[in-house]
Each structure stands twice: as C-alpha cells, then as structure tokens.
Amino acid sequence: MKYFSVILVAFVLISCGSTQVNYDYDEQISFSKYKTYNYLPDMQTGLSQLDANRLISAIDLVMGEKGFTKSENPDLLINIMSDQYRESSQNSVGVGVGSGGYGGGVSIGAGIPLGGSKDHQTITIDLVDSSEDILVWQAVSDSNIALNTNPQDRVSYYTKVSQKIFKNFPPEK
Questions:
Q1: pTM flag (> 0.70)
Q2: Which of 28, 41, 58, 100 has the most CB atoms around its CB within 10 Å?
C-alpha cells in the first residue's frame, strides 16, 4: 500500500508538471495601480465546493506572496471557470502482415493503442478591473489531473497549478 501511495503522489506531481498556461492581458493597463482583490460574488467555477475552496485558498496564498491584499472593496475581481475532458491516446503501434508477388497481394493491418486516456482540467482565471468592469488579465491552464486522489494531494495539485497560473502576474511593461 505504501508503494501505491508513493506512485500516486509522483503521478500527481508529474501531472502538475505538464500544466500549460497561456496568458493574455491589456497592454495599456498599468498593473502597479492594483493592490487589492476579491472574487466575484456568484462565481460558477465548475469545480466541486471542496476543490473550489482548495483553489481559492491557493490563489489567496499566491496573491498574498505577490503583495496583494484581499479586500471588501477590491481593485481587481477574480473569476474562476473550469472544465474537464478526457483525451484518448493518440499513440498506437501498427502491425501488418503482407504478401505480394507478380500478380496478387494480401495485406492485413491493425493498430494497437498505447497508453490509456488522460483526464485533463482547464482552469480559466479572469482578473477584472472592478471600477471600470473590464477584463485586464486572463490565464488559461490545461493540465493532466488524477481524479481519484486524496484531499492532501488535491491541495498540492491546486497549489502548484495556482503558482504556475500566477507566475507571470502582474505582467511587466
């Protein structure tokens, strides 16, 4: 059982290692004016309440490390959206048997899939200027996710994903 736990933790860490994040932001905005944040009051995250709380706690930690303060009258509002999908393996090995000659030929082929399907999670984080109600920054992450993990591994997963999402925030001019 201990061996299985080590493999499971390694899988979660490796899965997070494959997180890809794409950013977009308004280049006309001076991000130095933003000091406080909070979340949209009626967010529909697409996550379970437990995972939403884990992600929000992880974002709070990252934003605090970057010098932002959570406020009831924030400069920025954060919106979280997520989606999950399953990607089937695109790898296969072909096996063929053939015969040919001067007037005929026979061929049989088959593809054998390698590996299994992977579960992915896409998380989109929008930062909205609360006074002007405009989107100023957005990150979209896509990562492999292990769906059947324990709560501690899920906390670790969302912490690492949040760190990757906010790695280049605020953008430098």
A1: yes
A2: 58
CA distance 39 to 76: 8
Q: pLDDT tens for residues 103-139?
A: 666 556 555 555 566 788 999 999 999 999 999 999 9
Pairing mode, if any, of strands 76-87 and 36-39? Answer: parallel
Alpha-carbon separation of residue 63 from 86, 115, 131, 148, 173 (angstroms): 31, 38, 19, 28, 19
Q: Are 32 and 170 in contact (CB under 8 A)?
A: yes
Checking 4-12 for CB contacts under 8 A at 24+ apart, the result is: 8/146, 8/149, 8/150, 8/153, 9/153, 11/146, 12/146, 12/149, 12/153, 12/156, 12/157
Please state, in angstroms and as integers, the Cα–Cα distance from residue 58 to each residue in 62, 91, 93, 105, 114, following that order.
Answer: 6, 35, 41, 63, 35
Distance between CA atoms of 3 and 64, rounded to whole angstroms?
36
Secondary structure string (H, E, C) spanning 54-121: HHHHHHHHHHHHCCCEECCCCCEEEEEEEEEEEECCCCEEEEEEEEECCCCEEEEEEEEECCCCEEEE
| Predicted confidence (pLDDT) per residue in 68-88, tens digit | 999 999 999 999 999 988 775
